[in-house]
Amino acid sequence: MTTPELAPRRTFGGVIAVWVVAALIGVAIGLFVTEEWRPAWLTVGLGGCLVLGFAIQLWFGRSQGFTERVAASVLGALLVMGIISLGFGLASIVPG
C-alpha cells in the first residue's frame, strides 16, 4: 500500500521546458550550421533533448507516468525541431 502524495508537483512544465529548449536548439542550428551539416546536428540536438527530458523527469521524482512524460517530451521536441527545420528548408529554396 502506498501513501498518496499530499501536494504533488506539476510535471507538465518539464515537458514544455524540453520543447522550448528544442526550439532554441533548432533555431541555433538553423542559423549557425551550414545546410549540409544541419541533419547531423539536428540529430545530435534531438539526442540532447532526450537526455534533458530524462533528467528533468527524474528530477521531479515521480514514478507515476514517467514513461509517458518522457515520451511526450521527446515527441514534442521532435515535432518542434521538425517544424523549424522545415522552415529553414523552405527558406533555402526561396531565391533571395
- State the end-to-end distance: 66 Å
Class per helix and strand makeup: mainly alpha
Q: Would you tell me the overall average pLDDT?
A: 90
SSE pattern? HHH
Beta-sheet strand percentage? Answer: under 5%
Number of strands: 0
DSSP helix fraction: over 70%
Sheet bearing the most strands, described?
none
Backbone CA Rg: 17 Å
Question: How would you sum up the global shape?
Answer: elongated
Number of helices: 3
Number of domains: 1
Low-confidence stretches: none
Describe the protein's architecture and organization.
The termini are far apart. The chain has one domain. Helix 2 runs antiparallel to helix 3. It is mostly helical and 96 residues long. It is built from 3 helices and no strands. Keywords: Membrane, Transmembrane, Transmembrane helix.
In short:
This protein has 96 residues and is an all-alpha fold.
Give a topology summary.
Elements: H1 12-32, H2 38-60, H3 66-93
Which structural traits does this protein have?
single chain, 96 residues, mainly alpha
